[in-house]
Specification:
The complex is a heterotrimer. By secondary structure, chain A is mostly helical. Helix content of chain A is about 65%, strand content about 5%. The chains are: A mainly alpha, B mainly alpha, C mainly alpha.
């Protein structure tokens, strides 16, 4: 028994040994299809999300390869212009709404957030399951629109075209509307969990940075997604009843639609990237074996991005005909987003400085992230300047910019996080050799795909065109070849990860020597995460302290038993 | 535990009374024909006051954990951001770059 | 003693440490949900504000078509239902099982009165051709964008009406559970958070009433 001071209160805690090979973990504690589909276990829900988004990433990725193949020559290779419009719309909508928004928060976040907090589950487990099913139903609607009459509006559904086109806009937007609720419920659940479910001693200053990033993301989800819901509801009403709020033919204002849409969709960009920042903080801290430099700066900059990111939506509308005054204000505010983002980058670099860096696959992805995301971010600042934006608006430059941020940023962080927590989630180690090979292939393929697009864009190649003038052919062909290389990289990942499930080595509880609570339980974790109530007395990145300092806790028997029930609960209620 | 505060019957009844009186005042003010834009300002001030009463005493924010109030205030703040910045566009469309001199 | 305590805490789900933690979590969750409701209705309020700023004369003209008396009565009805809803929570806190049910029933009745009045308002409009958007045929208002005002009116009051219907559904469910004795001072979370929802529906109407009916 040893005493640990937490917020001035004293709890009686003791050291617990991590059970490396528990007979029951969350994967085999229950079996059968029903035990998955109706589970309220956040870890199983996380895995179901992971499987879903992997499926949609595959679909969206194949569509992207189809698009790139069409663009190999200016002539009609695979499809006509109309089909091309539908395919790029689907690629965008699937990647944004079905893959990237739920990717890190819903898959990794669900799995990790409660464990990292030392809780048994999220605050509302049934709501969490409902959120997964709502997502699935929304996805079904989206796929139904694919079968009926695939939409050709682009993923932004701009009016008035989205009111006039004959394609299945209502089915698609209704699907997105439904998925919005899934996003809202996940965000609410996470915020409450962070506020109310932290283990004794897990103060705000001891939260892992991944939690801070998830918290900021959840705030944006709760704040912005309802506006998307009302926007799409109005769009559906516009199509069915002709209410005339957005349709100029009926006295409406199409630019108002863009305000509504981007009030959600610009913050949504931060729903996509802020969780990636959280993952990168964990990766860089762990593999540099150093306390993360500027903990509070990184934590607070996530919230700052959430806040400033809500003020800048109009930089998508510089050529839409909005007033000059708002254009100037939006451009000015946009530059501010660079500040917290820069703070993060420099703090990560400072963390790596003089650390003993271990270039394992996840860390390789973190470094790729730093490189690609910085390019994406800096070109974003350029696009925030009005004069440059007017020149580059709706060109490949913009396409390259957001692929560097979304794919070079979020997807690379997601891959890093996936490799980092793969042993924890599955209990198996993947092949480190193939992990590094595929990371390098993806890095090369990515740059080969999108660097030429920057060049083409700056020379005036417009986005969303299925043909082009001959001067761009070399660049387009480089880009297409790059996309195939990228595809090969993902296939390799799929193969060795699948292989690791059958033949992989058994993972230990803490293969990377990390210090956060998710590594203080077996791999894969127990059904209820811990068989004791963890008590936290150290920061999440105190690498100078022995791991045993991080497995302190109160025995569940004592904690929920009858003996000390009254006073122990009282104490913990005060510390939380 | 403050979250379980039982709100006094008297508080609930007087809140209701105040809300009904304020509704009557709102309608009375309408018939006074206050010139624009002050009619909207007065109507919104009265409505906001009523909403505050409901939030504080019916919804119990007055007795509750402070963070719940923070959540509500933030929702209003973000709504105002949404309105305010959108109006920067819609109300200044015809201004023209030469008319607007910073 | 120990057994009495565990019975009292039968409603606490296993992942919570205490009843208080569960209660305050549920409440925070509901407040966050109300945050999303504010933003959801907020979108419509933004549309309202912008169109009113563009067409002030239209809003003055069109609002005369709406009945101030009916709108005022509905405001008082909703305020009354908020009171009975708060009293239902109070009854739960003071272990008065019978009055939980009674107060909830009065709330449901008042909510229904609100909807009935709304129904008469709507049908009176439909008869003269004041329909949303493209179906608008009324010629009494001399303004090219007259239909847009009523589109906004129908969207806002319609969405509010849907919330009232959902509220009635929730309270019927509460009545069924309360009849079975599910709520007491130890556990009344569903009553409390449904109450929060209901008061927000009231607040939204408090703003809709002057903004729609009282424009001069």
């Amino acid at each position: 028994m040893s005493a640990a001071a937490t917020n001035g209160n004293t709890l009686k805690v003791r050291y617990f040994d991590i059970d490396e090979n528990p007979p029951k973990n969350y994967l085999n504690a229950e079996s059968g299809l029903k035990s998955w589909l109706f589970t309220v276990d956040h870890k199983r829900i996380g895995l179901m999300y992971l499987a879903s988004i992997a499926l949609f990433f595959f679909v969206g990725g194949v569509l992207a390869l189809v698009l790139r193949t069409e663009l190999f020559t200016p002539a009609e290779n695979l499809m006509n212009a109309e089909t091309y419009n539908r395919i790029f719309t689907l690629h965008g909508a699937i990647m944004v709404f079905l893959f990237i928004i739920p990717s890190i928060p819903a898959a990794l976040g669900n799995f990790l957030l409660p464990i990292m907090l030392g809780a048994k589950d999220v605050a509302f487990p049934r709501l969490n399951l409902a959120s997964f099913w709502i997502y699935s139903i929304g996805a079904l609607f989206t796929l139904a629109s694919l079968a009926v009459n695939p939409i050709d509006t682009g993923w932004t559904f701009y009016t008035p075209y989205s009111v006039q086109t004959g394609s299945a806009v209502i089915l698609m937007t209704f699907g997105v509307f439904i998925m919005g609720f899934s996003s809202i419920l996940t965000g609410m659940n996470f915020i409450v969990t962070v506020h109310k479910m932290r283990a004794p001693g897990m103060t705000w200053g001891r939260l892992p940075l991944f939690i801070w990033a998830m918290y900021a993301t959840s705030v944006i989800q709760v704040l912005a997604t309802p506006v998307l819901a009302i926007t799409l509801a109005l769009l559906i009403m516009e199509r069915t009843l002709g209410i005339g709020i957005f349709d100029p033919a009926l006295g409406g204002d199409p630019v108002l639609y863009q305000h509504f849409f981007w009030f959600y969709s610009h913050p949504a960009v931060y729903i996509m990237i802020v969780p990636a920042f959280g993952v990168i903080s964990e990766l860089i801290g762990t593999f540099s074996r150093k306390t993360v430099f500027g903990y509070w700066a990184i934590a607070m900059s996530s919230l700052a991005i959430a806040f400033i990111g809500s003020l800048v939506w109009g930089h998508h509308m510089f050529v839409s005909g909005q007033s000059e005054l708002s254009t100037v204000v939006f451009s000015f505010l946009t530059f501010f987003v660079g500040i917290p983002t820069g703070i993060k980058i420099f703090n990560w670099l400072a963390t790596m400085h003089k650390g003993s860096i271990d270039m394992k696959t996840p860390m390789l992805y973190a470094c790729i992230f730093l490189f690609l995301f910085t390019i994406g971010g800096v070109t974003g600042i350029m696009l925030g300047a009005i004069s440059v934006n007017v020149q580059l608006h709706d060109t490949y430059y913009v396409v390259a910019h957001f692929h560097y941020v979304m794919m070079g940023g979020t997807v690379m962080a997601f891959l890093g996080g996936l490799h980092f927590w793969w042993p924890k989630m599955t209990g198996k180690m993947y092949s480190e050799f193939w992990g590094r090979i595929s990371a390098v292939i993806i890095f090369i393929g990515f740059n080969l795909t999108f660097l030429p697009q920057f060049i083409m864009g700056s020379q005036g190649m417009p986005r969303r065109y299925y043909s082009y003038i001959e001067q761009f052919q070399t660049m387009h062909q480089l880009s297409t070849i790059g996309s195939y290389v990228l595809g090969i990289g993902f296939v390799i990942i799929a193969v060795y990860l699948a292989h690791s499930l059958w033949k992989g080595e058994k993972a230990t509880s803490n293969p990377w020597g990390a210090r956060t609570l998710d590594w203080m339980t077996s791999s894969p974790p127990l059904q209820h995460n811990f068989n004791y109530q963890p008590v936290v007395t150290n920061g999440a990145y105190d690498y100078h302290k022995p791991i045993s300092d991080f497995t302190l806790g109160i025995s569940d028997d004592v904690y929920h038993g009858n003996d000390h029930e009254g006073d122990i609960r009282k104490q913990s209620a005060e510390t939380v | 535990m403050s979250a379980h505060h039982i709100i006094p019957l008297k508080t609930l009844l007087s809140t209701t009374f105040a809300l009904v009186v304020l509704t009557v005042v709102t309608v009375a003010v309408f018939y006074l024909n206050i010139p624009a834009p002050f009619d909207v300002v007065v109507a919104l001030l009265l409505a906001s006051f009523k909403a505050t009463l409901v939030a504080m005493f019916f919804m119990g924010l007055y007795y509750d954990e402070k963070f719940n109030t923070v959540v509500l205030v933030f929702s209003l703040l973000f709504f105002l951001v949404f309105v305010g910045i959108t109006l920067l566009d819609t109300n200044f469309r015809d201004a023209g770059i030469n008319v607007w001199i910073p | 003693m120990a057994q009495a305590q565990s019975l009292e805490n039968a409603h606490v789900q296993h992942h919570f440490r205490s009843s208080d933690q569960q209660f305050s979590s549920s409440k925070l969750g509901m407040w966050l949900f109300l945050f999303t409701e504010v933003m959801f209705f907020g979108g419509l309020f933004v549309a309202y504000i912008i169109y009113r700023a563009w067409n002030p004369e239209l809003f003055t003209m069109a609002a005369t078509e709406l009945s101030t008396v009916l709108g005022g009565i509905n405001t008082v009805v909703l305020i009354g239902s908020s009171l009975t809803c708060a009293l239902a929570i109070r009854a739960a806190q003071t272990n008065n099982q019978k009055m939980i049910v009674n107060y909830l029933l009065v709330t449901i009745v008042l909510a229904t009165v609100f909807l009935v009045i709304k129904y008469f308002e709507y049908t009176a409009k439909f008869e003269v051709g004041i329909l949303p958007g493209g179906m608008y045929t009324f010629e009494g208002i001399d303004h090219p964008k007259a239909s847009v005002f009523f589109s906004i009116y129908y969207m806002m009051t319609g969405l509010h009406g849907i919330h009232v219907i959902i509220g009635i559904g929730l309270m019927i469910w509460l009545v069924v559970k309360a009849r079975a004795g599910a709520y007491s001072s130890a556990y009344y979370t569903p009553v409390e958070i449904t109450g929060l929802y209901w008061h927000l529906v009231d607040i939204i109407w408090i703003f809709l009433f002057p903004l729609m009916y009282l424009i001069d």
